[in-house]
Write a structure and sequence with these properties.
This protein has 324 residues and is an alpha/beta fold. The chain is 51% helix and 12% strand. It has helices at residues 2-36, 47-56, 83-90, 106-112, 145-164, 175-212, 228-233, 252-265, 278-288, 307-322, and strands at residues 40-44, 63-67, 94-97, 117-120, 219-223, 237-242, 269-273, 291-295. Bound molecules: zinc ion.
């Protein structure tokens, strides 16, 4: 009898020990960590998505927004994730992307982090075809302020859904309050963007009228695909998109080809970007007399919330100057 008691007590002791160990392991895998750190980590893929998200999450406690790339990185074409990026994504709750093929690494991220909530800012947007890469989408939709308002709404909707489905215990604040603030932030930012839409559409419309009446040449040369959305809306035909980046500098033959097109087609306007080296556009200008205008594609900045709005105001002024 005594022997049986000892065996029973021993079995119970083993069961208690096993349960205790399992609970320790579970806690180590996140439960305890969540209790300690109740902030939501939102990671954005590049600068325009970062600026948009900053505006939407402004003054909402418990949301941390990080940009995967640094503020001077520019567009993401051919971007490869770094070890630091992967660490950031491993601890992220939400990943906000531009979409349209801008994040070429996206499939790998989704495969390695199946629980990560991905918000595609370009959902529902019909993209124009890339001039640089035939058959592919041109992902630079944010440069058309009207499409940017769709991106704001997509971010708002995606974040709202995320907070609606969130376990109440996993954040310190009330998710209803967070959603209210999110919606009011989104409305404020939309108002600002809509002012830009109105001003931008006005100038694009006047360019279009002048191009149609042959008052100005309707053909332009652009550096990089990003100006294509505005050119399209203004009824301008992109005669040539100069593909240029750090890895593929323009060859002498390609520069000669651009110069030939400009001379042959009587092109008066060349639009380049701040992120590109100016020496090539200077040379083209020298040899052809074509005016060179710089577009701010809003892909770099100091991280301030008004970066996008300011870049677009600059672009409106540049277009007014170009087509005055
Ligand atoms: Zn780009």
């Amino acid at each position: 009898m005594k022997k049986k008691m000892i065996i029973l007590v021993s079995i119970m002791a083993i069961i208690i020990l096993v349960v205790f160990t399992i609970s320790l392991i579970i806690n180590k895998n996140g439960e305890v960590d969540k209790e300690d750190n109740k902030s939501i980590s939102v990671v954005t893929s590049f600068y325009p998505a970062y600026v948009l998200t900053q505006n939407l999450t402004d003054q909402i406690p418990g949301i941390k927004v990080d940009s995967l790339t640094d503020f001077s990185a520019g567009c993401l074409h051919d971007y490869q994730l770094t070890t630091n990026d992967m660490k950031l994504l491993a601890n992220a709750d939400v990943f906000i992307i531009n979409g349209g093929g801008m994040e070429e690494y996206l499939e790998d991220v989704i495969a390695s982090h199946p629980k990560l909530t991905v918000i595609d800012l370009s959902e529902g947007i019909t993209m124009i075809e890339s001039m640089e890469h035939a058959g592919e989408d041109n992902p630079h939709v944010w440069l058309d302020p009207e499409l940017y308002t769709v991106q704001i709404k997509n971010a708002n909707k995606g974040l709202e859904q995320y907070f609606m489905n969130l376990d109440p215990g996993s954040i310190s604040g009330d998710s209803g309050d967070i959603i209210d603030k999110l919606n009011s932030n989104a409305n404020d930012y939309l108002d600002k963007a809509l002012d830009i839409v109105e001003e931008m559409n006005q100038i694009l419309e006047s360019v279009k009228e002048r191009a149609l009446s042959n008052d100005i040449s309707n053909k332009v040369v652009i550096f990089h695909d990003s100006f294509a959305y505005l050119a399209n809306k203004a009824g301008l035909e992109v005669a040539y998109a100069v593909e240029i980046d750090d890895e593929h500098p323009l060859s002498a033959g390609e520069i000669a080809e651009v110069i030939d097109i400009i001379k042959g087609e009587g092109i008066q306007y060349l639009f380049t970007e701040e992120q590109h080296d100016g020496t090539i556009s200077d040379r083209i200008k020298e040899e052809t007399g074509t005016e060179v205008f710089i577009i701010n594609s809003a892909v770099t900045g100091d991280g301030s919330k008004d970066s996008y709005i300011e870049a677009m105001r600059y672009n409106i002024d540049t277009l007014k100057e170009a087509f005055k």
